[in-house]
Amino acid sequence: MEGETVEVAGLKFTPYLSQSQIASRVGRVAAEIRSYYAGQELPILLCMLNGAFVFAADLLRALQMEVEIEFIRYSSYQGTASCGEVSEILGLRQPLRGKRVLVVEDIVDSGLTMARLMQELERQGAKEVRIAAMFTKPEAFRGNYTVHHVGEELPNRFVVGYGLDYNGLGRGLPELYIRTE
Ligand code: IMP
């Protein structure tokens, strides 16, 4: 129930943003995005699985723009010693060369995951890459790039709900919860 502490996979979390607060953030982000692309070639939305599917579903409906959406998974793994780290985007069904891309992400924390994804999108020849993140943690951010559209800046603490998980659980909570100190 809204307003109460919850337990997810053995950890306690306290309510942080209500459903209506989240909805107003999504509405504002959608308005920003609409105004940025007004009268211009529209982007392909790239929804980063797993966490961003909830935000992407709300954002897409709030946007009211004729846009395509693709669901991608970013996989990064250690290759052989000589190759070092190999990264790849899974799920892309169309080439991005020359396209405008809007990455839809649940949370940008240190920003390392997004930095690698952006490198990969640029390598694929995307014409423009912008980022919409429902949440950021500015104190933890170590990237040297801009997150263009942000729903809410959070303190540097662990959160669950609204698509975000702890050990695979908690994604279905409609509010955002922060780890109880
Ligand atoms: P980054 O590479 O440090 O920016 O981490 C990004 C990814 O870590 C996100 O896409 C989330 O999957 C996960 N993550 C970061 N912070 C949290 C959190 O507070 N709760 C749940 N997942 C998180």
TrEMBL record:
Gene3D superfamilies: 3.40.50.2020. Residues 18-166 form the Phosphoribosyltransferase domain. Pfam families: Pribosyltran. It catalyses: IMP + diphosphate = hypoxanthine + 5-phospho-alpha-D-ribose 1-diphosphate; GMP + diphosphate = guanine + 5-phospho-alpha-D-ribose 1-diphosphate. GO terms for cellular component: cytosol. One of its GO terms (biological process) is IMP salvage. GO terms for molecular function: hypoxanthine phosphoribosyltransferase activity; magnesium ion binding. InterPro entries: HGPRT (IPR050408), PRTase-like (IPR029057), PRTase_dom (IPR000836). This is Phosphoribosyltransferase domain-containing protein. The lineage of its organism: Bacteria, Pseudomonadati, Bacteroidota.
